[in-house]
């Protein structure tokens, strides 16, 4: 398997963490999708990472699709439950975490994209995305409560998605001090960072 991605992308990190937790071998190919000479469109017509290229088959893209597929490849460390209700809960956690990252990416692009002049940037739009981020983080903290993990007592995709989202917020938005406000999330993140899968993929 070949994973195309970048070290800074939280979506790519989610896939890399799942790969590590599942003990799957793969080749990691760095790609800057913003570069003029990027070749990502040859694998993903949407021009986005992560993109998983399987030998002799079509490329697979969108982190949610990739991680669900990867969880079927090995019985080691099952991350997505088979039961419908528990499965829906884990996928909802993933959607929440991805939504926080989506809002963060939109906010950051509005603020930093070189294709837009300073006078063209919308503060109202950035404020709207930041509100989604802070609301999503608050929902994570409420959902976690005093549990050891997001979806019960074992590591699951819920925790991986949340950990990648929080790690990226720390990396790109250090002014959002979620640690001071939500001690339970800080405790979870510190616990996740003790795992090699997280420590080795820190942006």
Automatic annotation (TrEMBL):
SUPFAM superfamilies: GST C-terminal domain-like (SSF47616), Thioredoxin-like (SSF52833). Residues 1-78 form the GST N-terminal domain. The keyword Transferase applies. GO terms for cellular component: cytoplasm. One of its GO terms (molecular function) is transferase activity. InterPro entries: Glutathione-S-Trfase_C-like, Glutathione-S-Trfase_C_sf, Glutathione_S-Trfase, Glutathione_S-Trfase_N, GST_Omega/HSP26, Thioredoxin-like_sf. The keyword Transferase applies. This is Glutathione S-transferase.
